[in-house]
Amino acid sequence: MHRSAAGRGRRPGVLVLFTALLALLLGGTAAAATDYTQSATQLSGSQARISFTPTTPAAYVDVHYLVGGTGQQNVRMTNNAGSWQQTVDNLSTGSVLEYWFTYEKSGPQYDTPHFTYTQGAGSAAVATPTFSPGGGTFATTQTVTLGTATPGASIRYTVDGATPSASSTPYSGPITVSRTTTVKAVGVKSGLADSPVAAATFTIGQASATCPAQSDTPDFGPNVRIFDPGMSAASIQSQLDADFNALKDTQTAQFSTGRVAHLFKPGTYAVHDNVGYYTSVAGLGQNPDDVTINGDVTVDAFNASDQGQALQNFWRSAENLAINPSSGSDRWAVAQAAPFRRIDVHGGLQLYPASYGYASGGYVADTKVSGQAASVSQQQWYTRDSSLGSWDGGVWNMVFSGTTGAPANTFPNPPETTLATTPVSRDVPYLYLDGSGKYRVFQPSLRTNASGPSWANGATPGTSLPMNQFHVVKAGDTAASINSALASGCNLFFTPGIYHLDQTLNVTRADTVVLGIGYPTLVPDNGVDAMHVADVDGVRLKGLLFDAGTTNSASLLTVGTQGSSASHAADPVSVQDVFFRIGGQIAGKATTSLVVNSNDTIIDHIWAWRADHGNGGTVGWNVNTADTGLLVNGANVLATGLFVEHYQKYQVVWDGQNGRTIFFQNEMPYDVPDQASWNSGVNGYAAYKVGDNVTSHEAWGLGSYCFFSTNPAVSAYHAFEVPHTAGVKFHDLLTVSLNYQGTITHVIDDAGAVTPSGTAPSNVVNFP
Known about the structure:
The protein has 768 residues and is mainly beta. The protein folds into four domains: 36-119, Sandwich (Immunoglobulin-like), CATH 2.60.40; 130-204, Immunoglobulin-like (Sandwich), CATH 2.60.40; 224-374, no CATH class; 472-767, Single-stranded right-handed beta-helix, Pectin lyase-like (Pectate Lyase C-like). It has a 16-stranded parallel β-sheet that branches. Strands 39, 40, 41, 43, 44, 46, 48, 50, 52, 54, 56, 58 and 60 form a 13-stranded mixed β-sheet that branches. It holds the Pfam family CHB_HEX_C_1. GO terms for molecular function: carbohydrate binding.
């Protein structure tokens, strides 16, 4: 809770006088009744929610309140889609809540009169259920999510026109509506009156949604820098440096709200772009060599606090350009969630910091390095569909697929795992400028048994979409406006920013593109799931960060409908450079980060992370709670570049048949309090569990590490748990005890030795 300095140890009357004087000094005055609406609503027997909705959007709203005339609190309220809210706890029936507001309006701040609310007065009711998407006319089957703002309430619903009651069908997950249907719902909770009945009609197959015309040269908002070769190098460098300085520091920027994208129009630039947190660097050509940087695009151990290590260089990216490095080699010393895609490096590529300190793993795809790519102190790395002059280095787990110039398969000494091709791949959609100066989004074609960059023999094969078919998401957009754009047939282009969602985003149209730049961050509020993708062909998700909200979500992203048998092999869903965070920024909670139900889905570079560090109060065994990073139910799902860390039960559960994983990096939870709290029938939970009924699964290049820093007496029985059947095969696995904080007894099932001391690996080459 944020407390203002004015509220500490002052009598209520003094604070009111102080606030009024401050408002006058800032040009404020008493509020006008037409400026806002406000309310206090009972949520449960012990909770009430204060709400304030300004007529004019406010930069901030503070609420001041007293319970029973004492203990004044002063809190910066939470903006929930334009309505500012604060929940008050520890109330009892008859508690009198006195409250008033200070709010910003077009610069000055204003004070409201005092209001009162009595807990339990009258018959409090459950909040009316909401539908996502709302009712309307749709071309295809819809996946409908129901929700209510009342914590602990359940929802009952009907689809036959009957009025729902407490005895109607209980809502337990998304409803599939495949024909025209009216869904009715009521919220129910013991001790509260039932909610009003809500209804929404979904008309299916009557019309084809067509995106209303958007601009081909849109305003991308204030966080997107667009550079032109006609601009002076000094002016470009000045902007790059300013952005870097704002997002450089590991201590202050790692969990900041800054988001930015550097986009270079086709041409040549003599600049050096140091890439900080939440920064995307990309060329706007159709192919990498349309934009050339005569200089560098650099990530290093930038800060004194890093002590020469690059272990926390997360959330930054480079894409779709050529680099002529100033010193002969470009440096990209990163950890997780920092892809390097579609780059033509005219020289070498150094994947380690200049200090030779450790870095914690990364990802390269669709890239050409004419010189040597050197990992040196990188702990693990995955390279896909690329071309290297040569490779040097290997600490624990270096994996290559479809990469010419990669080293031979020599795991575990040195620890190189090499596949000649990538079974199925499709590079990411990306923004570019066409010859007439209009923006388009290119969609690379699906590749099978690929080797080398998609553009090695000319332009990348594929198709493109005009920006007039994209809704550009930027400041001011809400979940409702985004869902409206999706329902009308638009694709989505997310610009850098943080987007709070009070309803689930529903992607229901086949071949929808959802593309983000500058790490746009989606935060679900009130326990909703952030996004659902229907069981349809060809949806492409790229460049998004899902950040769990403070109320538990069942999942952050769900792809498809569980139990679906539809094949999407010819046009699969792809989830690429999509990242998940539980805690760190806020005290987030989500049971599962990513659920994949659609068959044939491509998971290409994700990092699902339950935070082990972050802002104060956002991290702890009972604070940022999350069971599982990835749950796969669909068949024929392929993961290329899978990073999952610190979840409290199984990190990955794979229940779908014919799954494949190429490269897996994992750390078990650091903060296990004791063995009794972390037990699946054996000590701990496996990092990667293949379901007991699965008969076909194969994986290559997998590492799992433990660091039980809270209680080093904790152990895990094994890192990988699989059924014993001929069709389940694992290659090149290892476990490590970092600084010998706890142990992992076996690598896979009962095979493999206990993790040794000295931060050394225990290896298994093939299982069974």
